[in-house]
Amino acid sequence: MKLISAVFLFLIWSSATVAQNNAIDKQLLWEISIPGSKEKSYLFGSIHSNDKRVFSLADSVYVAMSRAKTIITEVDLFSMFSDFDTRGTLPTTIYDKEGNPYTADARGTETAYGSEDGMPQFLDAYFQNYCYNAGKQYLPLETAKQQMDLLVDLPLSEKKVLNATMVDFSREKLIDLYLKGDIYQIDRFMRANLTLDAAAYEKLIVNRNTKMVTDLDNLLKTKTQFFCAVGAGHLGGSQGMVALMRSKGYKLRQLTWNVSEIPLKEKLEVRSKKQFQYRNPDIGLTVFFPGKPLEIAQEDGSTLLIHRELGQGNTYQVEIFPNDETTTPEEWASIFIASPANSPIKKRYNDDGSYFFYGISDSYPEGLSWVQVQFYENYVCVTKVYGGNKFMHSDRPMKFFEKVWFGVD
Q1: pTM of the full predicted structure?
Q2: Residue 288's closest CA among 306, 276, 280?
């Protein structure tokens, strides 16, 4: 399901300056004006890709993101963290005489939305990540189940197109069209690639456009000021969201696509929101994640916190267990660190005399991971970090371990 759903999502999407690079013909950002109101909202055409080229965003995009009180995307991608690993392959490693892992392979791991060589999150997830890190309100237009149900309803012939043609050729073609920013060409491309079944374009594009515009209309009536990112394939054409919003009486204005050589303060502000502080004062735990984690209360009484960088395929996971006094710290470590024979578990002491265990682990289903086991009063904290080839053989896992602690910060 992982590969099919990823391809499906990709298909539907999926003022001080010295000099400027102008691309005024890009039609990706639209200002929405409400009759009788000075407040502005924004509609942006996005793409499910972490290719660094699509992150060359216009100044106006950063201004719109900064001004908006609410960030909207098609679906709550973070709700999928519990079971959506985007890596295409798992990394392998070898060990030196001291048991330290290393690799002779410098290639980045391929993922459902690009590769490790791209940005940590793909573009839509980047907007959602910023929303939480900046403390703004977040709203999705659809649930993950609704999108998956659409895929299930597609005829077999259309699924074959999603898996074969779209993966091999259309992914790069779609990015090329996106970089040009012509939403009407993108609409024509979508129509041409959804022709094996007469109802596919209507199901995947038209019907969803109508529903999403209805939802945005309802929000605008409540004076909600938002930045909404949807797949660029939903914007253009006579049945696209731009035309539908105009039919409801809203004025939509295409904003100029300028990229300043000296970053605007709004761009610096947006890019500064790089982490999310999770605090649980009841147990004295503080964790600085790259973005907001999904929090899951599990049947065994433990709490799981998980955050994924969907573009690069990296996972940051923290699990808190009630400490069972019949289990020794060494036993806790051996349970959670499935260490290869030639890479032993290591023990390290903190300045206050407390200690923790850490090491590389190889277990199903995540494969290789770095694991740290900490202890505090009545709790055990197990931090597990895993990702692609470059990530696993970098200092990033260890740096994240340093951002997980018990006690007063």
Answers
A1: 0.88
A2: 276
